[in-house]
Fold this sequence. Notes:
Elements: H1 2-16, H2 18-32, E1 37-38, E2 41-43, E3 49-51, E4 54-55, H3 62-65, H4 79-86, H5 94-100, E5 104-106, H6 113-117, H7 121-127, E6 133-135, H8 137-141, H9 145-149, H10 155-177, H11 180-195
Parallel strand pairs: 5-6
Antiparallel strand pairs: 1-4, 2-3
Amino acid sequence: MKRLFDIAFSxxxxxxxxPVLIACAAAIKLVDSGPVFYRGVRIGMAGKPFRMFKFRxxxxxxxxxxxxxxxxxxxxxxxxxxxxxxxxxxxLPQLIDVLRGTMSFVGPRPEVPYYIDLLTREEKEIxxxxxxxxxxxxxxxxxxxAQILRGSTDPEKTYQEKIWPEKKRLQIKYVKEKSLLxxxxxxxxxxxxxxx
Length: 196
């Protein structure tokens, strides 16, 4: 049922927002001239790596310049990237991942290998038992991570101390409570935050 929901609504979503996707892609090309997409490696269900679609919001090779956590004042952000992240537009291409089956609308946010390696065996078994998602309880709790990290002299340390422990707890909570009604509730709460 969940997979059918993902396929149907990712198709509808991609069609409906196609003008926005085209506009974002054109803006990235015009302002920055680099690649439109950032295809970072994330860990999916059962520990399988995949390359996630996101609109590129940082300079080319940003992952080689700094860590995976991004503060709102990160020097690696491009002008258009700052705008895309503010309105969560950089996340829209993940509908492609939902359609492909590497992600779901709702599920634990996909992490880079580094953070998966920090999980205990039990945490991995729970969190990686489902497809990663565009949104979940942790996303609702920490809707603007970049602002929490803004001004930090060590964004990675701040992330690990202030965000990571609660994020893991909420990801595990989602897996244990998952249902279609829970997913619909999280999606509606996410939409409310986006338009608030």
